[in-house]
Specification:
heterotetramer, A: 251 residues, alpha/beta, two-stranded parallel sheet, elongated, C: 169 residues, mainly alpha, 8 helices
Amino acid sequence: MPDDIKSPSSPPPEGEPKPTADKPAAPSGVKATASGSVQADVKTPPEKDKASPATAPVPPKPAAAAPATPQATKPAAAPAKPAAPAPTPWDSPMVAKLKAGYGSGVEPLTYAGQNYMIVDRSLIPEILQVLRNEDQFDYCVDITAVHYPQREKQFDVIWVLYSFARNERIRVKTQILDGESLPSSVPIWATANWLEREVYDMFGIKFDGHPDLKRILLPDGWKGYPLRKDYGILQQDNEWVQINLGIESGQ
Amino acid sequence: MTDANSSLSNLDLETPEKPFLDANELVINMGPQHPATHGVLRVILRLDGEKVLGLECVIGYLHRGVEKIGEHRTYTMFNPYVDRMDYVAAVSNGLGYCETVEKLLNVEAPPRAQHVRVILTELNRIASHQLWLGTHALDIGAITPLFYTFRDREEILKIYEKYCGARLTTHAFRIGGLQYETYAGFEKDVKNFLNFFRPKIDEYEELLTTNRIWLERTKNIGRISAADCIALGVTGPVLRASGVKWDLRKAQPYANYKNFDFDIPTGLNGDTYDRYLVRMAEMRQSVRIIEQAVDALPEGPIIAKVPKVMKPAAGEVYHSIEAPKGELGYFIVSDGSTQPYRVRVRPPSFVNLQALDVMCRGQLMADVIAVIGTLDIVLGEVDR
Amino acid sequence: MAPVATPFFFYLFAGIMLIGGIMVITRKNPVHSALALIVTLLAQASIYLMLYAPFVAGVQIILYAGGIMVLFLFVIMLVSIDRSMKDRQFNSQWIVGAIAAIALGGLFIAVYMKGMSIFPDHALSIVENDNTQNVATMLYGQYMFAFEIASLLLLVAIIGAVVMAKKRI
Amino acid sequence: MGQFIQYIESYLGSDQTPGGAGNMFWALVYIMLVFVGLSVAVIAMNWLERKILAHMQVRLGPMRVGPHGLLQPIADAIKLLLKEDIMPAEADGFIFWTAPFIVVLAAFTVFVVVPFGPTHAITDMNIGILFMLGVSSLSVLGIVMAGWASNSHYPLIGALRSSAQMVSYEVAMGLAVVSAILMTSLNPEGTGTLSMIGIVQAQLAQGEWFIFKFFPLGLIAFFIFAVAMVAETNRAPFDLAEAESELTAGFHTEYSGFRWSLFFLAEYSAMIAVSSIAVTLWLGGWLRPFPNLLSGATWDQVFSFFPGATFLFFAAMCFFNAARMPKHPLFRIQTIGLAGFGAALGLIGLALFIPVVRVRIQDIFWFAAKVACFMYLYIWYRGTFPRYRFDQLMRMGWKVLLPMGLGVLILTASVALLQQKIWHP
């Protein structure tokens, strides 16, 4: 799969229907080619600027209140109060395939033109692997979490994935209990290393198989996970502050 | 997939190489107070002589809990906070945040606002690249470019100052459009700047591009392959210099970038020199974009109709823009109240910094400085 | 140039040399030893100067004090000082050392006692002004062969060092 | 007492250096003069470097202390002397304290043999150039000691880099020097010299500066030396030992106040020292420009007006800038100061027109002017070049400069031999 990436000139399979519709290298283009390793050539923006191109035809089903395409050049003064837009089902060949494979464990949805799927915790390692290997989601944009203390499964963990080949961005979301751990996705995407560390740092969610799971932004000995909802905004690890900074309070 | 992973399999910190003549490994701590780490970055280097065996970044010295603050402020109140992350490209941060909230609110900024946003963000991209060039050259030992770039960056900051009164943390945009109408003579100022700035890029390049020492210090230094870049999630000029022609402005156009004609410069080798050339070319492209935007600046309202008290419907949105340093993403969860339930910032510097270890393996200690410089990190954004 | 206070300077430099030499073998810290050795070498260069051999003195400073000793220091600094500080300074072969010292001392005394007869008295010729030229004539004339052999030896040493240091050539 | 005065007077009119004539009194006077002159030069260099660098970098540089920052070096000196002298707790005390003195000693002792004129040197040794190279190579000892004694990683690495660099470049430098010394032997007697004065006199006798001798051999040797001397003094683009972006400040990271200023002093006087070697060996030392083309008493006369004219030019510049000062009461002192400085320069300039002074001073003037060109080059390099990496620096020293030096040496020897044997048998 990385073969597509290594050759920069090979255009992504989709999202680039007409490669050369405009003028080549304008005079203000790259001049500094003294040793010539930078070339500027011209790429047309895709004709259709949907957030999810061809593969993901957005179903304009409910109420048409949610404009499907974020970049739609509509008059700006559109009324900003649509009646509580709700996520709509998301349909695409990829999703159909996943659905066929995993059944009810996967719930693909679209909201504000953005596709995501809620995946059962047990399916997470497999789905991520499949997305990476078969569906070319080779770039893990972000891993993060959201805390819902009132829910039974307290945490949403979200992977934001992007595929260079399809020019498509999706989110994978799962719900886990407090204290439950997740398999690390470092073997799938190396970038997950720090991102998972940050999630661990901020939420206390453990990732099994992570090579070096420790705090990243907060000091090592810190107690508590600041981005949990039960952690107050002024709260801090007073003990740590007193020991390490020698002051009563950091605030 | 196997390919990418095999290239990564030799990235683990323990390189099993037998030491020669019982040479002791030297562990050196760089930072957090160090002139070349661009802030409070701490790097722990494992050296064999001057050769880097591996390194570990220790970050968080500038952690201010921006994401936590976001949960306790209304959508409007949080807007100025994002400027404090990547403080050299504050306008880009603001743009990303505003657009994300606009998506949640389902509004769109009017065309005039979009144009001005593009102008200001691209000016900001130039300013950010200028600051990068100056400090990067300074790290490699050329002092003079720093003063040249700061002299010219000043002109951009003057435009900001005239527009919104602030120079660095501008808070230039409002959710739904702009904070202020442009001042009289804004177009003229911008055009003057472009005419002033175009020859200046040549001036920078004259000092460095063909300078033999510069070539020796940057060519083949800190190489990173496209596959590694993607696996490590590296974006922005670093990714492009490795040969991947990917720019969010083209791939998933936001604001109204699709109306403008510009190129994506890419490199071939993914080394420090290519990253330098890519950024220099990007400045020229930014000049092109600004020129088109100023010429086609439409009249009209500058802010869409947004409610005074913003209560986006419950839902979540991830939106990202091409900040000067790479993909800057915001993931905002709304629960229908006036405050975001969760704000997640996907900082380009943070993710790019992860590649430092890969890029520095086997290089010399002096190159670590060059590579930190070429990654163009801002610690305010890394630590948030 | 007329010599000034020759005995004074001779004893001064000779004393410095001796003290330096003793320091070399008594200091526990190898860096201190090396520095003491440098002092000794510099004092020696001064003695050469007093012997109207300025060229040798200059070479002594450039090569020994400025070059070789710097490399010595270089190596010593890379070695863990702490470990060598803990090592015992004197090894157990002090009997051999004592015998050697006594023998050398006897030799010195013998030379001192009948020095006049061993070394015939030359007429003192001060060749300060074309000292360098004389050294050159000797080296590249009379002792050409020896000089070249020395340079060959050095070449061999260099090649040997490269072979030893490089894992793969 | 009378005897003493006689002793003093006996030197006047001598055509030898005080050292050569064995006159201790005048030797001491010369030592004092050289020491004071050097210190003034370093102070001036400090100001000039900041000013010139600033103007290269679209800044103004020091402007507050005195007119155009003229008093800035003095303010800096006072600041440095008043600063606390900090010694790291784990440092090796004795070595830490002596290191800066060794560096300064090495840098200043070199000037014993620098010929500012045919008789204007403290002494003339017949191993002059060897002495200079030898003593200046001792400064590396001080640097190594400083780096090691600080007991800190950055100074240690800085010191190691610095010593490796200096030892390596000394080789190339020595080869370049030898090829210049070879040129001194191209006289009827066939004997060369190592004496600094002798080298300049050889250039005078042969009617050309060695930089033009056997073109381009002399030029190449000079080029090698010019590169090596920048590396020798640890200046940009070879300032790895004190690369602030990598090693904070290199070997003197842990030093402060007075001791730090000693390193500073040593660095600048070492720069002047190596420039003096270059000037003596290749640029004709104290000889005025074009001694062969524009020879004759008239030209001598014309060139002897240069020193005074230069000072008058600087004085005029001071007056011009004083006139351009803002006419504001707050600037009055500065204007007066600048005008006063100009007046002083003008007076010196006028004094230099007095025939007696003129004849005596012009050698020193030309020597200083040539050295000043090198000093300007140093600043220029610093403003222009990025820094080399250590392995690149070593590669350049060993793989480029050393073979070049060897080649030039062999070629020079061959050409000299051919010239002696064939063209002028």
